[in-house]
Amino acid sequence: MTTLTSYLDQHSTNTELNDVITTVTNVGKTISQLLRKGALADILGEAGNQNVQGEEQKKLDVLANDLLLDALAENTHCAGVASEELDNATPANADGSLLVLFDPLDGSSNIDINMAVGTIFSILPYQRQGQTSENSDFLQAGNQQLAAGYLLYGTSTILALTITENVVMFSLDPDTGDYVLIEDNVQIDADTSEYAINSSNYRYWRAPMQQYIDELIAGEAGVRGRDFNTRWVAAMVGDVHRILCRGGLFTYPFDTKYAHKAGKLRLMYEANPMSLLIERAGGGATDAVNRILDIEPTDIHQRVPVVLGSKNEVDYVKNLHVNYSEK
Ligand SMILES: O=P(O)(O)OC[C@H]1O[C@](O)(COP(=O)(O)O)[C@@H](O)[C@@H]1O
Ligand SMILES: [Mg+2]
Ligand SMILES: [Mg+2]
User: Fold this and answer.
1) Which of 32, 126, 149, 199 is at a distance of 20 to 30 A from 4, taking alpha carbons?
2) What Gene Ontology molecular-function terms does this entry list (predicted)?
């Protein structure tokens, strides 16, 4: 049996990175326990405030954020944290060599209905050791990530992680509290007939995305010549996990629903860590034009269109966008 601790010892000589991953995944155990108790732990419902993005915060959004923040503040290797739920990055220990970014609770609309939610994290190098970290220190492209992963709190709690060229998965053993290795080299098939999108936004999409979904819905009778199936967890972490398990395409594309957003998902807390996992598992991840991991961020809370999953299908969507220009 390989536990997370023994895996990190065997595969990474960066003990500081290993220590920070251990801190994050230990918080995941606490969140997992709280979710098991649900209403009995008084974790459901609204917190009564909005985050920096103007979204209503759930109690668990706040709780998960605070748990991660407190734990990482104690970790001497963590120089600062940036979270979807906080206006600005929070400095931690100036001598630390690592920056941690997270979506503490992904899939907030699933919390109160007892459906899958998760925690997504990304770890970047800190370049100014000895000085207090600021927002600008976090503005690094996703290709700089030293590690990325997610915790999926589903029927069991799963950790997906990449610190080497491989993507690995662990299952949390509730009896021992250990993360136990269950997959040591996750690979995604290049082809798929399954896709995930919130189609209620159809009228806000660009023409190539509308065309793409029209083609999938036409199925056997259309240009694709085969039927496609839809799945939508309403938590990116759940949709990405399904894709790592059996392939598929996930997209939250560019839309004009809200003028100030290029899409719903956040580059630093969602798109970058998920793109690293997907690419290392052999898939593709794009904003429909550019590789997500090569986007140079200008704001820690920036949004980005996301198309990721089985390589050939992602390339198909990209090709549809090649000659598209905004009218
Ligand atoms: O409610 P919609 O528009 O279908 O959006 C669902 C998407 O929003 C998200 O829940 C956003 O994440 P948060 O819950 O962290 O805000 C994604 O996980 C998911 O893919
Ligand atoms: Mg999220
Ligand atoms: Mg969230």
Assistant:
1) 126
2) fructose 1,6-bisphosphate 1-phosphatase activity; magnesium ion binding
